[in-house]
Amino acid sequence: MVAEGALLWEPTDETTGRARLTRYLESVGRAGEPYEDVWRWSVERPEEFWTSIWDYFEVIGERGDGPVISGTMPGAEWFTGSTLNYAENALRRTDGVAVVFVSEDGARQEISYAELREEVARVRAGLVRLGVGRGDRVAGYLPNIPQALIAFLATASLGAIWSAGSPDFGVPSVVDRFKQIEPKVLIAVDGYHYNGKTYDRSAAVNEIAAALPGLRATVWIPYLAAVEEGRAPQQAEPAPGHDEELPRGEVIGWEGLRAQSAPLEFERVPFGHPLWILYSSGTTGLPKPIVHGHGGVVLEHLKSLTFHQDLGEGDVFFWYTTTGWMMWNYLIGALLVGATPVLYDGAATHPSAAALWRIAATEGVTYFGVGAPYIMASLKAGVTPEGLERLRGIGSTGSPLPPEGFAWVAEKLPGVPLGSFSGGTDVCTGFVGATVLHPIRAGVIPCRSLGARVESFDPSGKPVFGEVGELVLTAPMPSMPVMFWNDPTGERYRDSYFDVYPGVWRHGDWIKLERDGSCVIYGRSDSTLNRGGVRMGTSEFYRVVERFDRIVDSLVIDTGQLGREGRLLLYVTLAEGAELTPDFEQELRTTLRRELSPRHVPDEIHAVPGIPRTLSGKKLEVPVRKILLGTPVEEAANPDAMANPEVLRYFTP
């Protein structure tokens, strides 16, 4: 066990001096000020702070003469009267490498800014021919390939609205998302590769298209066919028969979409004009279609990527993600700051657990981001990353990273700071994170993000420090949703974030916030363990249980309800050859008693073949709890939003 808070890395004078945040602070006359003082200014004087972001980064657009911020949450408005376009800001450069693409089968493509601008212009013209204009929706059923980025930028350039799903999503899951937004055009691949296997999705695309009213056209990217033929995807046309099979609209290939050259133009739109639609995990009910605006995303990603990841021109940025996770939207934001995003399509651990580290070495990645589980998997697999001389920072998100993960990175990559970040799809960024001006301590997130007024509330709505409380935002951020799609009165939006503390955004995470701004995230507040009045996030429980080599994965559920204590149930997936013997059960109970508390010794321990997870890898704590309390499986969890729905039957009461 590594002590939480153990010092692992400190910035040197050289690191501080070259930090992009330092240069910004010099420009606004705050050089040398403590970070907490700068953070306080950023949240107490948002009009000054966000104006400085617009000016410092020379955002392309018209700022207008309206107020920087008007109104309060929910419903605050930013930069009234301004106009801009995300794609115009992302494509402002003309020289150098814009994007690198690699896949697990060894394919690699490098795209210059000139080539990217040309491709976006061609696809933009193709979308116009299909009748796409301002406010129309374009949906992508695509892996993390260049065509996804190109199609998004072309859509954004028109003032149309982008939405994406990964092709590993099941048909009902995709339809649940796209049917709500009624896209005019669907862009899809015929299949994808993952973990050394090929998955044909042609039939799935036909089913999806059939379920989308108002669909004018489907654009096929023959990803599998092109690979088999040894050609780039845009050089192959759809397989014969798609025209007859597809029941809605015109059918063309990617080459047909991009067939005509055209000038690259940009439709400047109001600050809050919809840019893209993201979705909640969709584990229960219909996913929430979360709409973000051009201006909020541009300002937030400029700020966050530059100051919290320390990215800029000349940097190479990697984050392991699919198009169905908000980190894809964050990754491509590298274009806004002049860094080169590396798009990767494939499994994280194929052909070995070191796969992503090898990509980082080969591509000269300067900032490497993954989900916390990949770092822990690397630790358990005994990986030793090599060839990372250009690496200056590592990011972790998706779930809390235990102190052991921090310590492993510090041991294997000395001198490279690891920043843990926590935020959400809801704002497409992190609320809390790191900078290169902060020391790194095991298990601790160093600071609240600039412009994010994060606080910790007790049940009565009072701020607390040094104890676990609800993560809340007590002031608006520009990248908060401009709305939910098909929510004209805003009721669903208000119920999602403002139902507990009126006028205050409740995010649904437990946080322990210290007075210096550092914090620890303890998991979702609606799945937290509460035993005899002792509250603890599930992340600490997993930290203890999953330290055992005999345990591959685990899930802990507290069935207690308001006013009534329930049973604490531990489910474990065992390593090959391991058994849940009485002696091993006793060892688990003893360890949990010793390292957590007697109240957290499970009432029951069960071995199961797998732990249910979403397609993005998150454990389904809340749906499993509902099932154990009597909710029918089909109502508690959407199997098409799960990576392994077959394991749910092992969690029925």
End-to-end C-alpha gap: 34 Å
Radius of gyration: 24 Å
The number of strands is: 36
Major beta sheet, specifics?
A: 7 strands, mixed
Low-confidence stretches: 239-247
Inertia-based shape:
globular
Helix content: 25-40%
Residue-averaged pLDDT: 91
Count of DSSP helices? 23
- Class by SSE composition: alpha/beta
Strand arrangement, major sheet:
7-6-19-18-20-21-22
Q: Roughly what fraction of the amino acids lie in strands?
A: 15-25%
List the defining traits of the structure above.
seven-stranded mixed beta sheet, alpha/beta, five-stranded parallel beta sheet, globular, 653 residues
Give a description of the structure:
It is a single chain. The chain contains 23 helices and 36 strands. It is an alpha/beta fold and 653 residues long. The radius of gyration is 24 Å and the shape is globular. Mean pLDDT is 91; it is low at 239-247.
